[in-house]
Sequence to fold (477 residues):
Amino acid sequence: MRLRRALGIALSAALGAACSATGTTTTPAPAPADPLALVGISDLDPSPTVVEFALTAREADKDLGGAKLSRAWTYNGAMPGPLVDAKVGDELVIHFKNELPEPTMIHWHGIRLPIAMDGSPSSQKPVPPGGTFEYRFKLRDAGLFWFHPHVRTDVQIERGLVGVIRVAPADPKEQPSVDEERVLVLDDVRVNDDGSFPTYLDDNAKMMGREGNTVLVNGVRDARIALRPGAIERLRILNAANGRFFNLKIPGVRFRVIGTDGGLVESPYDVDTLLIAPAERYDVVFQVPSTPGTLPLTSQPYERGHHTGELPPLPVATLAIAGEPPSVKRELPERGPAVAKLPAPTGEAIPFALDEGTNAAGDLIFTLNGQVWPAVAAARMALNETRVLEITNKSEMDHPFHVHGAFFQVLTRNGAPEPANRIANKDTIIVPAKSTLRVATRFDEVGAWMVHCHIEEHAEGGMMGEILVGDAVSHAH
Ligand code: C2O
Ligand code: CU
Ligand code: CU
Fold:
């Protein structure tokens, strides 16, 4: 599949510059490129079912509000990196090159694939500086997925290594009908006044995961999102932050949640605020108010432990409502496609206890089943069996728990059964402080699949483990 969008924008910008320089143009200037547009990739394979592209991790200068430009770590020079568009059944072929000064590798978050392609310490040796690796896998699920390093994630993701894969359903009729669809990558970064990245973590960042002083929407500070009055808007939102939970609100607007990590849900539901933990994705639609003007998109205070809920609302973006309302009237979608429920679980539940503590040296540690990665004992399950994971958060703060290589479905929250109409395929879920979630999961690939908190400082601080499926062995020990 050839995607020329990114190229097209660059070309028309160049032409526009040339024309205004000579002053001879009679054609109107092209509409300014949307600053929130994510860069694309150039597809090297003409086949409509193969998306093949080069992906290079390298340093690039980026304006993050400091006195000088910040030395970001990027995929293909962009922060966030490219948006890859593909559809179910497509094969992705990625020629990865590491031009960073340290080892890295790419994990394809939420994508079901063979273990050799998972890009985690359990499955792959990091790619050294100057090294290359070819990732190749087929897309099995529609949804919004992302990719990021799995080495020193607290540093590498923070510095900008994030990209997005939007997988469309094989049958386009499954897509809800909307006036416009946008992908929003939410992030926050901490930069010093001079634009450099801090090389140490303060105690709060160690405890809560680093929260930044600069909020970015698709890499843009003080983002303005242009919307038409009355339009039905679809937002595909990823929280790519290390530690920040976004609790989104637009005054007077209700979001209708139509999907999450693993694609569309069966029964959409409405919320006034949309809570998104690091690594989660939400797919929402809403009707833009019919009055032109501006509205703030904020993140509302949310108590995720240790009194983080007492802060004032955080500005995320400004919605600028202007122009003509759409000529075709649309309704918000009422129903989604059927989501297959996993077969009834068998065997014993697999316990995962999440906690915090201090080690012998007095340093803060994060534990899984009382151990610190890589000393955490692996769980084991059989290929294609459905098992219960019983995730108990013993600590005083929420942890967004992530499972590689499979989706899971919530069975109970603190013993209360999940309503049948809330069935959803998740790969990352908030386990609130002092609570227990039981989820069902099933792997259809053998391998050493990682599980961890997706607050990067917690994962790197020890809250990380593995599920060995089939006769798999881990490469991490
Ligand atoms: Cu998005 Cu193991 O991670
Ligand atoms: Cu993952
Ligand atoms: Cu955590």
